[in-house]
Amino acid sequence: MTVAALDERRQCSHLEIAGGHRPPLQLAEGIVKLSDIAARLECVLNGDGDVEITRVVGIDDAGAGHLTFVSNAKYAAKARTTKASAVIVSNEFPEIPVPTLRCSNPYLAFARAVELFYQPPDAVRRINPAAVISPSAKIGEGASIGPYVVIEDNVRIGNNCTIHPFVHICRGVEIGDNFKAYAHVTVRESSVVGNNVILQDGAKIGTDGYGYAKQDDGTYYKIVQSGIVVLEDDVEVGANATIDRATIGETRVRRGAKIDNLVQVGHASDVGEDTLLCAQVGLAGSSKIGRSVILTGQVGVAGHLEIGDRVVATAQTGIPNSIEPDKIVSGYPAIDNKLWLRSSAIFKRLPDLLKRIETLEKRIEDLAKNAPQSAGATSHNKVP
Fold it and tell me: What DSSP line would sit under 30-57, residue for residue?
């Protein structure tokens, strides 16, 4: 899109472009036969395919006309008594009274089934006149830009972006196609964002890293954060998460990584492909996280270390040292999960174990007091 075309579009508050407007909460399919759902999801249907489905519902709340799913073994018993009209299960799941849709990945099938009945509201494809966009910014086709968005000098954004109110895109930022930024997102100067990236409300990309040099008088001198942040394709960043720019060089979040709400990614960190950082995870500066890693809620990672591919850290784990690939760790300091489970089982027994130790120590002390007298009596009675 040329700058002239962009200026012309901003002058009309009701201009709609390709894509149109879809009412919120519109049902994509309405009532659907189970056989049609099976075909769309590529599942094997066992049972009556003429059953009509109106919604996808969790197994605890499912009733007539509902499709539910079982992906966790602890819910298997509920599937046998569910009031749902049909259940998505694994290929190996035992037969149950209601029809089933069988596949190798029930949770993925559930995710796709939801899309058959619900589509999120689609933003109007227009640029609101209350947005402030630099003449030097270049915006691709099919843009939806809400009121009070600020886009600074020399920004480049690809096609089909959706930018909600109060988003701030700073100078020199480069963004690919199909970008979505919800309210109050900030993308700081010179950051690079790939295709299909989603930034949830309040996410902050490229904020200053936590860098200070201590001076002779004990005060701290702020180190200029001259680096950038790079978000590769298909990354999603949750609400109020922060990804700091590097002091020098770059902070990089690689393709397909998913970052949850309230996560902190420290300056110069490198987050691997398809890695999950769950709520309140904190990465100190220069952390290197491998691919397909899962750091669950409130995991803390010390700086300047490396976590290998496919590592899983359970909730509230503290990681002070590097971890080899394919490990499951827990606790602080992080140790093997199985060892941590055994240690946790012992922990609640510690008061009882302390009493037993104290009792044994007292008995040993008593034996030691009596030992010299007994030994002397025995030697005195010896026959010469």
Answer: SSEEHHHHHHHHT-EEES-TT-EE-EE-
What is the tens place of the pLDDT at every residue in 213-238? 999 999 999 999 999 999 999 999 99
Verify whether residue 267 is a known catalytic residue: yes
Stretch (H or E) spanning 6: helix 3-10
The catalytic position among 168, 267, 304, 380 is 267
Gap between the Cα atoms of 319 and 308, Å rounded? 12
What global pTM score does this model have? 0.84
3-state secondary structure of 78: helix
| Range 185-339 has CATH code 2.60.40.10 | no
Tell which CATH architecture fits domain 32-117: 3-Layer(aba) Sandwich (3.40)
Peptide bond into 333 cis (omega under 30): yes
Q: Any idea what DSSP says for residue 75?
A: G
Phi, psi of 369 (to 5 degrees): -65, -40
- How far is Cα 62 from Cα 260, in angstroms, rounded to an integer? 28
Residues 6 or more apart whose CB falls under 8 angstroms from that of 360 comprise none
**Which residues are registered as beta bridge partners of 181?**
163, 199
What confidence tens digit (pLDDT) does each residue in 145-174 have?
999 999 999 999 999 999 999 999 999 999
Question: Contact at 8 Å (CB) between 145 and 139?
Answer: yes
Q: What are the boundaries of each domain within the chain?
A: 32-117, 185-339, 349-384
